[in-house]
Amino acid sequence: MQDGEALEFASNRLKGNKEILDLAIKTAPWTICYASDKLKADKELMLKACKNYGQALYFASEDLRDDKEVVEAAVQNKGIIIKYASHRLRCDKEVVRLALAQDKRAFQFIAAELKNDEEFKKEE
User: Fold this and answer.
1) Burial of 43 (0-12, 13-18, 19+ CB in 10 A)
2) Domain range for residue 79?
């Protein structure tokens, strides 16, 4: 509760404990990187981490990288993190708008199909 970063030195059993991870990401959301694979696939936990630390999407399971709610939370925090979203969501105009509103550099990571779209061409 006082130092989420201490999770780095915890046992694998503790890194797989949702309650412990939940406490750790409250003080240090980047500690999601130490979570077990099972918890990296937990939508509730990953959503909390992405809202406060967009880069958490990098550690998310493949399924959650394709979850619109999780990806939107991440790109609203750090637009450029769209590069870790699924192709389907890098083609989603709503997600792309959110990412570009947060960081224009996200343009380089949107799907090629949208780079020629008149709405997004001006962001280039």
Assistant:
1) middle
2) 4-121
**Residues in CB range of 86: below 8 A, 6 or more apart:** 62, 65, 66, 71
Q: What is the Cα–Cα distance from 69 to 74, expressed in whole angstroms?
A: 9
CA distance 117 to 97: 12
Secondary structure (H, E, C), the chain: CCCHHHHHHCCHHHHCCHHHHHHHHHHCHHHHHHCCHHHHCCHHHHHHHHHHCHHHHHHCCCCHHHCHHHHHHHHHHCHHHHHHCCHHHHCCHHHHHHHHHHCHHHHHHCCHHHHCCHHHHCCC
**Residue 19, class by beta-carbon neighbours within 10 Å (0-12 exposed, 13-18 middle, 19+ buried)?**
exposed
- pTM for the whole thing? 0.89
| Number of domains present in the structure of the chain | 1
d(CA 68, CA 9): 32
Tens of pLDDT, residues 3-43: 555 666 677 888 788 998 888 888 888 889 989 999 999 99
